[in-house]
């Protein structure tokens, strides 16, 4: 088994190469960064205008909603930056490109994660600004304290792990179905958008779906109950971390099993 340090060094080399290839088209990089940030900001501003008019959504203020938005945005950004092509596995399956990765002297998932690295600068800037803005107001009002900062950082990392696990499990289903775009719309795109809002605004069956079937609720909503409202205690944050590690282990096992069943396209 290869030690961790050489793996990390190899990963950084491959990521650097992927970034250099993307930076050959600087105008496209700058334009896509600006558009991504504008889309994220516009989405939040629409909700913020409603909150400005009515005050709160089921007891959640605009700053608390901004916090949920920011956590989901930053968690998703980490996942999509470090494992962009896990989300695009369908292309590899349909076009037979996965066969090329199978011939490389590194694990297939490792090779896939270093393909087409995306530096999602727009999402990073937007998410960071929104997080700082919302936390600053809540700290000034006394709602948050200094420990909320490390708690939030841990929350973002565990959230990124959960989203990666969900994305990997969804992608692994492609070893049997080949086409997974519609499934990804449900488990990733729609679920992540819904989880930007407090889950208790949804019917009980839908809330349960986002907690136990596609557990995006553990990315931001569940730990925020403790961090923002002091509910249930610190163990709620620890459970969130435990859920993220469990999902990661299960998704890696499902990936390995699915990969063992993979049949080449022959192209």
TrEMBL record:
Q: What's the protein name?
A: ABC-2 type transport system permease protein
Q: Name one Pfam family in it.
A: ABC2_membrane_6
Q: Report the transmembrane regions from the record.
A: 29-54, 151-176, 209-228, 234-255
Provide this UniProt record's keywords sorted from A to Z.
Membrane, Transmembrane, Transmembrane helix
